[in-house]
Amino acid sequence: MADWQVVEGGVTAPKGFRAAGITAGLKPSGTPDLALIWSDSDAIAAGVFTTSQVRAACVDYCQDLLEEKPAARAILCNAGQANACTGKQGEQDTLDSASALAKALNCPPEAILIASTGVIGQRIKMDVLQAAIPELVSSLAVDGSDAAARAIVTTDLVLKSIALETQIGDRPVRIGGIAKGSGMIHPNMATMLSFVTCDAAVSPPLWQKMLRRAADKSFNQITVDGDTSTNDCLIALANGESRTPAITEAGPEADKLEAMLTEVCAYLAKAIARDGEGATCLIEVVVTGAMSDRAASQIARTVAGSSLVKSAIFGRDPNWGRIAGAAGRAGTPFNQAELNIALGDFLLMSEGTPQVFDRAAASQYLKQQAERSTSAMSQILLTSTQQANELLAGESQQTFERQAQSAESLAHPVKITLGVGGGPGEGIAWGCDLSYDYVKINAEYTT
Amino acid sequence: MADWQVVEGGVTAPKGFRAAGITAGLKPSGTPDLALIWSDSDAIAAGVFTTSQVRAACVDYCQDLLEEKPAARAILCNAGQANACTGKQGEQDTLDSASALAKALNCPPEAILIASTGVIGQRIKMDVLQAAIPELVSSLAVDGSDAAARAIVTTDLVLKSIALETQIGDRPVRIGGIAKGSGMIHPNMATMLSFVTCDAAVSPPLWQKMLRRAADKSFNQITVDGDTSTNDCLIALANGESRTPAITEAGPEADKLEAMLTEVCAYLAKAIARDGEGATCLIEVVVTGAMSDRAASQIARTVAGSSLVKSAIFGRDPNWGRIAGAAGRAGTPFNQAELNIALGDFLLMSEGTPQVFDRAAASQYLKQQAERSTSAMSQILLTSTQQANELLAGESQQTFERQAQSAESLAHPVKITLGVGGGPGEGIAWGCDLSYDYVKINAEYTT
Description:
Two copies of one chain form a homodimer.
Chain A: E1 5-6, E2 17-22, E3 34-49, H1 57-68, E4 71-81, H2 87-105, E5 112-119, H3 126-138, H4 145-151, E6 160-168, E7 171-180, E8 193-198, H5 204-216, E9 233-238, H6 252-274, E10 282-290, H7 293-305, H8 307-314, H9 320-328, E11 340-343, E12 346-350, E13 353-354, H10 359-378, H11 385-392, H12 399-410, E14 414-419, E15 425-432, H13 436-444
Parallel strand pairs in A: 4-5, 8-9, 10-14
Antiparallel strand pairs in A: 1-6, 2-3, 3-4, 3-9, 6-7, 7-8, 10-15, 11-12, 11-14, 12-13
Helix pairs in contact in A: 2-3, 5-6, 7-9, 10-12
Pathway (chains A, B): Amino-acid biosynthesis; L-arginine biosynthesis; N(2)-acetyl-L-ornithine from L-glutamate: step 1/4; Amino-acid biosynthesis; L-arginine biosynthesis; L-ornithine and N-acetyl-L-glutamate from L-glutamate and N(2)-acetyl-L-ornithine (cyclic): step 1/1
Catalytic activity (chains A, B): N(2)-acetyl-L-ornithine + L-glutamate = N-acetyl-L-glutamate + L-ornithine; L-glutamate + acetyl-CoA = N-acetyl-L-glutamate + CoA + H(+)
Function (chains A, B): Catalyzes two activities which are involved in the cyclic version of arginine biosynthesis: the synthesis of N-acetylglutamate from glutamate and acetyl-CoA as the acetyl donor, and of ornithine by transacetylation between N(2)-acetylornithine and glutamate.
């Protein structure tokens, strides 16, 4: 059973963190575009980055820094320009961003991690960024998480934020996270970013291992294998401000912390999948009976990533043939005579044989899950300038309500369950349906 | 230089082949749905089949037959029911189909290869099929290729057919092919099929090797890695009726024959890619400078299969960022500082640096290629019942014109060229753009 509770505050829920988000003027749209997360004390830092051969300058910068020393005080994120494919000048811009912020924060430049998102090939507007730093730093606040979450998005429709609390020994420990991304068949070109904060004390190698495993069970399960953009990154800071004993090796405390970290990442990953461009529902694919967890995860990912399955779900069509087809081509062997497929509570295929089921009711299930999710989503859309301004001003009296609606939008996935044999392997993946609007958004996105 | 010429006749262009296509009543739509290709003499046979774990009964049947003995007299193909996920009964239906046809053709059942396409989970309507066999056999004709091509399609918009002729020694040798498939992000659930005939004499192992390599350079380059449906198959017969000396080992004759076979397969593969659901143009991605042909092909396939690239092309947006992003995540290493990207004649990126180019002209290039291709496509759409009836009646006086329009629809691809370094590896892949209609077709396709 989950041994934690949801709390408010996102990345500033853990002790000793502040955050800010402002409108610097980097985006043509005039919406918030510069975010900062700050730890009052030195934090250990772990990161998982894009595996693409084409990487933004900030990705190489962070990887090099963390390899040298897995510690940081701040994460700076600009939205609008990806600073990818910008050559030597792009690298210099990243260094200059860190230097300018370090001066304002009175910390060494190497304590600052940098993330960028936006249009590939465009340099950061450095004059705009540098001019905005004083306001950004003075906006840092203990309730600044939503403002930061608002300032890292590009095409996202909703904020993605979560914080959980558990007990380690007799003291509360919290992990918070924010994310941006509007994941579909592939992560949107403008990147998937996630920043996680934690007030436990953990050893750096253990924290890095936990984060890698958590990413494999969350963010890596919302994309088809190998898909990654130029700027993808997940950064996690842990500052020890909960004053719990340091967790330095495997054991019950480590397990508890890792489970909570994984839940934070899974929640944010699902929120990204649900926010897929033009999507009307979240799809959750659960695979059991595979030879290994790896094999099960691969099958789950392939089904969740299949355009034909996604189109069928959008058409409210309980099309088990497409599910079977996607599972079959996932590149991992199983015996088709052992294949079971369920959609919600409807058993569509048993031991490789199609079952008689109530097609109208199964279609109604698809419709109903989409309606529930869409109704909750409609409450939290990032459409109003007033709302953006409220967030930036820290007027977060509506935070709890927004958080509840956000959770509600993920609580009714279209659930596809596959059994592929008698093996011990299990895996889960998430996706969303494929609608007309996906094409519209991606055909009309201006470069 | 290509050492062949285009001739009419599709799979019946090579000597000693006849073909037929009729409306048996298998499809609810009442369009042609049963095809037969027949060799007057014993032919050697090679096949390349789906690698999916979920396979139609006919796929297992053909694979087993060809492993036992790589020879055949006939290919029977039914459209409407895929006969996949139909268990033991499905296997029996395949055997019964072969037996019934063998009796009518007076040949052994094991000389008949079977292919099916249509809805997964549905058995072939055996009574309908068996009742139609006499008419099918009596329709066999030396100009029956278009009728057969018409009877194997499901959602295809156009017929896919080609025949080429070259000289081996002092005698003409021909290879013909027909195909069905409407390939998009993934091959359509209702399968990619291709049947190839040849009147050269080749040794079975060499013919199988040639076909495998030709498939790798053609059909396997219109899908993203590993994608395959339950029923995919490519079957090639060679009957030796050209009376040329048997080709039994590597050498200039073998090379010539393989080059022509590869061209036939590449033409049909491009036609499938162009006929992608809702597509408005063909996309051709050429990659050079990779470490190996394999690496180059993988990058080409990833770019051609990227939904973001496809959406941008549909939006007539010369979005090099998405091209670079797709290349980067293809899973094969290269130095991003050596990346060159061109769209048609427009150099978009050189040595990893974005170039200044005439954006409006590049967009116009995309528009113009699509208009040319769409205009040719509109001449050959499979919309008229009259046309279907003409084809079935063998009234093929318009064959040549249709063939020319079909070639024209492929002659103006949107061309994306990538250089990824100084290596010797080269590869080509094909795809099409992603339009609103893709979603419409796949959301509304009735299971």
